[in-house]
Amino acid sequence: MTLNIFFMTITIKKREMGPEEIMDRERIRKITEENKNRQFSMYRPF
């Protein structure tokens, strides 16, 4: 009888965001919000 045991360690670290990445994410969020508003205004029921 053979018993194979495999041990694996997973480490999860919270990543620190720099000011450039925060500004980039905010810009993406604004663009996404503008696109949603534009889509809503185009497909609004009459």
Automatic annotation (TrEMBL):
InterPro entries: YrzI. It comes from the Bacteria. This is YrzI family protein.
